[in-house]
Fold each of these.
Amino acid sequence: MNAADDTRESRRCPGCQVVLPVSNWSGGPSGYNASPECAEVAGALLGYEVDHQAALGHLHQLRIDAYGAQHVGPQTRPITTVFALNGLYMYFERGSGNLDVRTAHGIMANSYSDWPVLTPPDQVGTLTAHAVLQAAPEGVRAVEHLLIEWARQVWEAWPGQDRQLVGDLTVQLVPARHFHR
């Protein structure tokens, strides 16, 4: 689906701001601040990841967290936002992968409940799940590269004080011995 070339009615995603042709997809935005069309793209990107599990499986949690941190809205639960940012923090600042992030989420969920309410910046990166999926014809390595760049943009778009807060919460709540290095 190429949003720029389509002449049908389109809709802007409230989270990432991508404009996509209106679809008939009935899946809904799955709790994210996302248009149904953007949620459909996120599902298609998951499908691409599953089809290329050997090459992209190590980025599964990063994809989830980039999408989550880019689609925070007024109805997003504070824990959801913190967890998405925690996954990005762990990948970019600690070099951690899927297992470490899921372990941290489990420990954090069971040891803390006063989650801060974080408000996303107006623009949470310029890349989107749609842009990553559009790289598929170039091959799995292009998708891998763009997915990492997308996640990096999302992480760096959040205010420094929010990134610091999430990093501090991670260090406070998750002892280093729990990481699988």
Amino acid sequence: MMEYESLIALGVFAVICLTAASTGAKYGPDEWYRSIDKPWWIPPNWAFAPAWMLFYTLLAVAGWVAWREGGGSAANPLPAALFVPLALYVLHVITNAVWSPLFFGMHRIDYALIDSAAMWLTLVATIFAFAEVSTLATWLLVIYLGWVTFAFLLNLSVLRLNRDRLPETAPTRH
């Protein structure tokens, strides 16, 4: 049976990931999104919510497993061996949370692509850091990396199809 402190830690990881997911709930497909060009291979809109729910769950469980297997406890919530892995993890979650406001909120497909690249890089760094702590947590993130890679390629394709629709960043002078 799981200890009480471990359940609390799992709850903390779930709240961290749900907080990141909340930006996707606030900023979602709108009229602008429906009007832009998308690649033929994009999944239907209804598929994104369950996919992200699955991947946020994997992300939360991976963080929790790494915390447990890395020696995290109520007495020592952040052992030295976990500082870098969990800092990278939090950085990844932040880059994940920023994507929806950039893409759907600001309609900046280009900025969202930069963020998507940062999301991919921070996830790869987290995977390598977690590999020193937990095999299970590492593999959970590797599964999630497949989705993040797909999302990056999708963002890149949408950018290529809509370069002419990007808002201007600064007024042009003639």
Amino acid sequence: MTSVKPVQVTFDCADPERVARFWCEVLGYVVPPPPEGFATWDDYNRSLPPEDQGSWFACVDPSGVGPRLYFQRVPEGKVAKNRVHLDVRVGTGLVGEERLATLQAECARLVALGAVCVQVLLADEENESCIVMQDIEGNEFCLD
């Protein structure tokens, strides 16, 4: 029997700290303390060679349950649809109009943070409603 392995979700992006702080707001995650010996993340970044400054950032679930999110700077922009995306589970257990209203309220909150609402998928015979969105750098995710 194999053991369960911890997972980190990695995002390629242009501005790691900005995208990480967006996801902290979306998920209720926090920025972990800076590496030992540094009072702040800015102090840590200033200690790096110029080409490495701001090249990555991370955020974590304060309860320790969810995966760590890691954001790394890459030179190229996003050019195609994500093959993997996050489902932010804000409507779990809700159905019908109550679910849709909850999803729409969260959508409005995230749009105010810079997200983009791409498509509202209304409930049908097989699926409940969900909302397809993009984060501040165009990475797709769903409110589910």
